[in-house]
Design a protein that fits this description.
single chain; mainly alpha; two-stranded antiparallel ribbon
Length: about 230
Amino acid sequence: MNKRTDAVRYQASESFVVGALLTIVGGYLDAYTYLCRGGVFANAQTGNIAALGFCIVDGNWYDVFHRVTMILAFVAGIILCNAVEHKLKHAAQIHWRQIVVLLEAILLGAVALIPHGGHDLIVNDAISLVCAMQVECFRKMRGIVVASTMCTGSLRSGTRQLFVFLRERNVEALRTCLKYYIMIALFVAGVAIGAALTNLWMEWSSLVCCGVLLTVFCLLFVKKDGVIL
């Protein structure tokens, strides 16, 4: 009988390092679109859907169009991610998630070339697409379900695990709670970094995310039995 080992190994896509980097990118992009691309949050669509209702009531049809295109771009990102997985799931040379990350980096590189102001609608649509691909592609971190582009789910799940710990003194629940809260802290760190660099470099600051995503691309070469944390 094989001895049980204490160390748990994860696929590179579920590692803490990959999850942390992607969460920082998620927070960064929120700051980028808010400060540089018209004061919107392109990551999660709840705000856009709510704003859509306000814009309809106000008769602000340009903003209605803007919100609708971001929502549709998010939908397109989910479809594109699943299409890449379906087409390349069994590819031998490269993992399908690497293709998704590479597409994200290319889109954010293109975004840097678009001056802020007149074409922000196109940029926000592109970033909604990127965030949809990311949240659909990377759903787990060290065995827990996470969304690297938003915090509501992590706050709910982490707090539920905190309650389980307080009620049952379940140490594993505390560990899971801390994982969720750490991801929230990393998202906030991404927002802070994104705010500082966007104020400094404006539209060009999206290139920082390109560098982080290319790092993730390289980390995904680590095999399932690798030692990535």
